[in-house]
Amino acid sequence: QGVIQPAAGPPKRKVKRNDVFTIQWQSVAAGSEVAIDLSADGGGTYSNIYASVPNVPGTNSFIWTVTQEGSDQAVLRLRSLSDSNVVGYSAEFTLADIAVTAPHGGEVWLMDTTNTITWTSGGAGPTVTLDYSTNSGASWLPIEAAVPNSGAYDWIVSRLVSTKGRIRVMSDGSGPLSDTNLWSMSPADFNIAGVR
Question: CA-CA distance, 155 to 185, in Å (whole number)?
Fold first, then answer.
C-alpha cells in the first residue's frame, strides 16, 4: 500500500486547513476498508481522522475535509482494517494554518501586565505579525511585526480597555514557503481590563 497524494517535494506539499484535499493511494491485498491517521510530528505519534474508508485493489482516492491544526511535519498513515501488517505512509507535508490558542475568549487581561499570546501554526514561515483589536476584529492595532514564529509572545497589555478584545496572528511571508494568506484571530472576545 503506497500513498500517492500528498506527494513528496521539493517543494514540500502544502494542504490548507478548512479546504478539501484528495488523498490518493495504491492498494494491494489491503482488504475492503482502510483507516486514515494523521501525525503532526513527522510520524512520531498518530491520531485517527477516518476510522473506515472504502478500499479496492489498485488506485483509490478519498476527499479529506481538513479540520486539523497546522503542522510543518504532517504525515498521513493508511492502515488496512483486515491486515495490520499492511500500512502505507505519505511523504511529510505542511498542513498550513494558524490558530490563536490564547487569548481564546472570556479571559480578563489587565492593562500594563504581561500576558502570553499563544498560537499553533504550519506553513506560516519563520516570523509572524501580531495585532490586537478593541472592537471584536472590526479594526486592528499593531503589537509587533517580524515576531519569531515560536508559538508564544509575551505581550504587555494595551492601555486601551475593552470588553471586545481580540488578537490576530498573521503570516508575514518571510519564508520561501510561507503563505501570506494565513492568519487567525481569537475565536471570541476577551477583556482588556483597567481604569483609564
Answer: 15
**Whether the predicted pLDDT of 69 surpasses 70:** yes
As a whole number of angstroms, the distance between CA 180 and CA 105 comes to 25
What the block records as the C-alpha cell of 63 is: 476527499
For the chain, counts of helices (H) and of strands (E): 0, 17
Grid look-up 475535509 returns: 65
CA atoms within 13 A on the CB side of 141: 11
d(CA 160, CA 113) in angstroms, rounded, equals 13
**Residue reference for cell 509575551:** 154
Sequence-distant (≥ 6) Cβ neighbours of residue 38 within 8 angstroms = 46, 47, 49, 68, 74, 75, 76, 77, 95
Secondary structure of residue 149 in the 3-state scheme = coil
What pLDDT does 182 receive?
Answer: 84
CA 6 to chain centre: 16
Q: What are the tens digits of pLDDT across the range 17-45?
A: 888 899 999 998 899 999 999 999 999 99
Peptide bond into 6 cis (omega under 30): yes
Confidence (pTM): 0.73
